[in-house]
Amino acid sequence: MLNISPIFNAMMRNKSSIILIVMQIALTLAIVSNAAFIIKERIDTMQRDSGLPETQLIGFDVYFYDDAVNIANQLLLDQQKLLEVPGVIEATPINQIPLSGSGDSWSFRNQLETDGAISSGAGVFIGNYNIADVFGHTIAQGRNFRPDEFVIRDNNGNVPKVTIITQALADELFPESNAVGKFIYSTDIPIQVIGIIDKMQGSWVHSSLVEKTALMPMINVKQFMRFIVRIEPKEVNQVIASVQELLLALENRRVVSPAETLIEKKERSYQSDKLMTNMLVVIITVLVFITALGIAGMTIFNVNRRQKQIGTRRALGASRMEIQRYFMTESALIAGLGIVIGVVLALVLNNYLMTYFSATSLSLNYIVTTIVGIVLVIEFAVFWPARKASMISPAIATRSV
Amino acid sequence: MFSYYLQLAAKSLKSTPITTLLMVLAIACGIGISMTALTLNHMTGTNPIPEKSSQLFAVQLQSSGKTSEWPTSDNVPFQIAYQDATNLMRVMPKYKHTAMYKTGFSVRTLEPKFAPLLRTARVTTRHFFSMFNVKFLYGAPWSEKVDENPTLQVVINQDLNNKLFGGGDNTGKEIFLDDKTYQIVGIIEPWHPKPKFYDLNNGSFQSTEQLFIPLVLSSTYELPSFGNNNGWKDERNNTFKDKLASEVLWLQYWAELPDAEAKEHFQQFLTGYVDEQKKLARFERDDARAVLRNVQQWLDYNEVVGDDSYVLVAVSFMFLTVCLVNSIGLLLAKFLRSAPSVGVRRALGASKGQVFSQHLVEVGLLGLIGGLLGLVFAYLGLTLLKNNFAGFDFVATMDMVMFLSAPVIAICATVLAGVYPAWRVCNTLPSIYLKTQ
Question: What's the ipTM?
């Protein structure tokens, strides 16, 4: 009923332009499915839950340059004064800002002896005993820090005695039992796990350690310190604008960097992923557009070239619908061929990306979705030229043949 | 003849404005996107010191523990320990070589009202400047004596000189770095190697430091590292002195070795040093060794050009292929439609070769227009990238190579694409078209 055989015969009379369209469809399918897959992967990475109220948290650096300043006392005073600022919910001096791309990681073991121990790196956030509250965490298991557990580490060798860790770190170090109450070891220092939080991303968003995080109630006194502050959403901009001045008024023998929300830090950390997705989105969009225009152009050309034949068919009794269906079927056949080759190409390209560029295996969903999209675009592109063909008057057949 | 063909080509392109527009746009999009991706790739991988690339060597030591793992292809750490750095500077032969690391200071003039600036600084020896071709605007590096006896001297760059003093020759003046006064001995010209090959630890396109101070001050004034500090050994480092004596890896080391002989000589010395440390049981690995890499090797080893960049280039060139296939199809259609007039010209005596080259000229003209428009697209693309991605302002800039290659690639690609349609049309049999007219 679709009369595939005469359509096929007609196609074989014009092989080169058919081959070109088939190639174009195949390449488009291979590129679009792989690019869409990469885009989806990157977007998923960027949209992971960081476990942090990013819009409400701000961070900034404080650099002390005068030996005469008692840094620990000053930081505690700063904290107290920050808490008095309208809109500020919690604040603590800290060693690193999450999602910022810069910070400290320590190595932990699940037992004192190195032989047979499970060890894992983890981003370590050290601040006042309220550090879990600053990040807005609820303690899923165990308890929060107590004020008396807070220590100040100067060159005195003080070490933290307790820690709250993320579920991800707990699962890594204690795969078979509950971590609460257990000790983890940094070199030979035992630190007791007193609580577990569900999730908190560390400083390096592309690291395998990103969700392995530990909190500790300590100030490790250095010239270069940071602050993290949680603020009521409405007051964020106001606090950012005033915080530098406030701290310098308290002690001006230091440099205070402009404050930034974690959203801004996060955007910078994901900059290369965003660049990649933007480039690929542009490529896909233009590619689909060009392919559609190309196919439409070819069909118009074919319609024009076959005007007389079409007129003859119409004169011999073919309906308009039949003419239109002829071109739609022809393009469907071409698309089918292009899709078969395109699927193979897509898998080859994915395999190449996996071999050389640590890509992951292309999920079939992407190929299927791309195929549906391409078929729709092609039929849409062919619809108008085919309609135009069906408008050709049978009288053309009678002219000058 | 060529100009006549060019006229014919222009006429032919004008006669089918929509097809021409489609083809030009397709080529321009293909060129625009692939040039954008290629520029990012090319600029990221540019060798910032080509004139000395093969004479400057990064020194690495496999000094870590038996089970230590490093994110490098040969599992050798990027940096070295302070004790190795000082040992090497003492025992290595006459060639220029230097250890270095990044620190930071608050910087003020002696003017009490001056609001302090936080700036990174490079702690190194005077060889740094001549090794890396750093030019001085005023003054000179500190003297050899200063490299041995702690003296508070500093070299600053022009930006900082402008910021502190509003420019001019300020050598001899003093500035505060933290709470100590340093004497300015030199001011360097703008120097921004990208990638920042001599220290790639905190990102390949970090800005260069604005201050340079003698390494010998490090232990006296306990200047902390602002860069990466990689510990692998179970050791407690409570004080800065502990850190200096520890196995923590946090310094970079570079040597200038003018020829193969020098490299061989230096490598021998390094091997001797490693053997000595092995005997002392400090280097515990069986594969403890020293590795030298020149600048280009060092950039490749550090994978300065990331996977993403190559994937983008591959995908964008596939995209260009689709654009060209698209244009071949349109060209074929267009040329075959003009077959009747070609038939007439053939019958009037035009040779196959003439018809062929006439059509290739038309394709070439198309490629040139598409390529130039593509260059505009690439420029727009790169400008968009620069404005939206703060970290890409350097790599999203076309250098001369990129600027010239865009039209060349466009013309070559379209001419290649045009060969088949032109060949098809020049094989037109004149008789077919003459019959029905």
Answer: 0.87
